[in-house]
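Notes from hallway chat w/ T.B., transcribed later so I don't forget. T.B. wanted the structure written out for a chain they're using in a teaching module, and asked if we could keep both sequence and structure tokens in one place. Agreed to drop them here.
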Amino acid sequence: MLLAPLLVGCQPVAAVRSVPPVATASLMVFTSGGFNAAFDTLAAAYSRGTGTRIAVAHGPSMGETPNAIPARLARHEPADVVILARSGLDRLVAEGSVVRGTEVDLGLSRIAVAVREGARIPDIATPDAVRAALLRAKSVAWSDSASGVFIQSTLLDRLGVADQVRPKAKMIPATPVGEIVARGDAEIGFQQLSELKPVKGIRIVGLLPESLQKVTAFSGGVVAYSRHPAGARALLSYLSSPKADAAIRASGLEPARRKASR
């Protein structure tokens, strides 16, 4: 398991039931790719302000890989907070792995398109242009998490290209899609903007047109078997406060002030 202790801080603001700062020695957080960049920045700030040590393990919101967040919780790996796609969080709440009532939306994510640096830039300005780009590409990649599931199960059918595109496409587990594109293993890749932004060697073409978009909320909750539930709530309060907005925007997300489509 990849553990990366981070030192973090700032003063939490009312969000998760107005939880005040809590002096907690340490917290363990599982976070999925879409919120990784924002969390690394915010965790460091929170630790500086509170003295709380934060360890983080990264994993997908869903899927069959051993490091997927649901699989980690099923093994009862030590954890206090989880941050993942809202649909995945809702399933964890329903099965009792996350405390009901602690859920809070943190950032809203949109799907973007990327190609290898130096490659031809496809037109994706309209649904027809996206359809043409998919048909023209020799290979396509998307993730096995929220954005990729939407593309494979909904978007291709909506564009009428499922039969032509699925045979030349790869659903990528665990690895960022941008890395697959940067290596030249896929000509065009689709993933949340916040997950593509940190990858070197790619060109982000832009966001999918609004009529083809799925806006996903990345959301947090307190793990049911957390040993530090008060500290976990305080961290979520900070992450959902206005003081977190700048880091969330810089990562390619929008701060969540309302529920997004799940």
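Follow-up for T.B.: Residues 33-50 form the longest helix (18 residues). Might be a good example for the class.
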